[in-house]
# Entry
Amino acid sequence: MLEKGEQVDIAWTCDRIKVLQPILQAARTSKRIVIITSDHGHILHNNTQYQSSEGGERWRVDDGHPGEQELQVLGDRVLVQKNHSIIAPWTEKLRYCKSKKNGYHGGITPSEMLVPIAVLTATETYPKNWQAVDLNIPRWWKTASTSEQVIVQPIQIAPPHADFGPIFSHIATLEATPQLIQISPWIQDLIQSPIYADQVKLMGNVQLQPEEVT
# Structure
């Protein structure tokens, strides 16, 4: 909530987002692609300047006089006003919300308008006309001192069944011959135990199937 608490820098990992692991596992098993996106963003409270306005938190009524930190937006797709014209801030330093919050709607700033999207796949098969894109991290992504030299290299993605060392050398064999996998008796006893059943109930809607755990 922008009105309460502090904004936190969340690590977007399977350990932090509990529902993500079973989704990705199911997608890999069924050879499906996972597309992750979000709703609109917001701007953080960082010395923002309040300006009174008649309108909403994202825009104000077009009086014909946009300020230096504002732009006039007009056209048939502007539906909040009968004249299809509004004024909105383009900078993160301006807000129309009077009360201070941890964050605000950002008008037409990139923080408000741009929506991230990620496409995840466990195979090298893509939909028609799709192609993988290298992750080129811009030089300014991480702060470095003036004495440091920032060297950016593309991330190398290992192909399936790559040689990750002796610990994982059995993976290719297991995936190629699943009918030969021997399930240890203690695993079956664990899955059928009352204690395990109680633990599964605590997982709520995010429950792993017994065969996945096995």
User: Anything to note?
Assistant: The beta strands are 34-37, 43-44, 49-50, 60-61, 70-74, 85-89, 94-95, 103-104, 117-120.
